[in-house]
Specification:
Residues 247-252 have low confidence and may be disordered. With 252 residues, this protein is mainly α. It has helices at 6-20, 24-33, 43-55, 59-71, 78-90, 94-106, 113-122, 127-139, 146-158, 162-174, 181-193, 197-209, 216-228, 232-245.
């Protein structure tokens, strides 16, 4: 690894401070000033400037900065691409986010969980792409992310693609990642809407294993699924379990 020049670190710190203060114009000026002070803009400096522009939703400038990095033969790393995906996601430019994800893979940048989460968040308006990111994480050997699963469930749910939602449920049940209440409740709802009552019961049962408290919404969705499938005795049993629990609160 190359040594980091104190002067370079001063610029990186200053650009980072501008990013926190949403002073993206000042951040760009500092980046431009680096060569004048004998400092070559580094990956960290570019990444900090991209974060500043992304926080201000100046996504066109973020892409321009990435192009400038390439022209200067300054190597982009996972943090650079993750910041770019976050900036594009903030302005719902999911197609460009996916394009940059593909570019990063061609460049040999290993995907990280955070990078996949940023791209997934950018793609939440397109349910096939959120499912694609979930599969991409599996192919990369990454643990399924609760955030990516929730994003995929939400995207599929908004478009009423309940069968596609079941793919997320299947991933959740196989994963070693512990889901949260939103993941479980969304999964049960997807099972109910797709008339997959036995899967809904499995998720409800596994919530105890996941150490997630079942809400009234979760029980109600499971009961509705059983009712729609003609499993009235099971629906009645769930109602009794919910009543006997007493402490169950609706957290939705």
């Amino acid at each position: 690894k190359r040594s980091i020049d104190p002067g370079e670190m001063s610029y990186v710190a200053a650009i980072g401070a501008c990013a926190k203060g949403l002073e993206w114009l000042r951040a760009l000026q500092l980046l431009l000033d680096m060569p004048l002070s004998g400092e070559a803009p580094s990956t960290m400096a570019y990444s900090a400037a991209m974060l500043a522009c992304g926080s201000a939703k100046q996504w066109q400038l973020v892409i321009q900065l990435l192009d400038d990095m390439r022209d200067r033969r300054c190597e982009a790393d996972i943090g650079t691409y993750s910041g770019l995906a976050g900036a594009l996601g903030a302005v719902q430019q999911w197609r460009k986010a996916l394009q940059q994800f593909e570019v990063s893979q061609i460049a040999g940048v290993d995907a990280s969980q955070r990078f996949c989460e940023d791209v997934s968040r950018a793609c939440e308006a397109s349910w096939p792409q959120t499912l694609g990111m979930l599969r991409q994480m599996q192919r990369a050997g990454l643990e399924s992310s609760v955030m990516v699963m929730n994003t995929a469930l939400g995207a599929c749910g908004r478009r009423q693609h309940w069968e596609a939602s079941l793919a997320v449920v299947s991933t959740m049940l196989r994963s070693t990642t512990r889901p949260d209440a939103s993941t479980c409740t969304g999964s049960i709802s997807a099972c109910e809407r797709s008339l997959n009552w036995d899967c809904a019961l499995r998720v409800l049962r596994d919530m105890q294993r996941f150490e997630v408290e079942a809400s009234i919404v979760a029980f109600s969705s499971a009961m509705s699924g059983c009712d729609k499938a003609g499993r009235w005795e099971m629906a009645w049993s769930l109602q009794e379990v919910m009543r006997n629990a007493g402490s169950i609160a609706d957290t939705i």
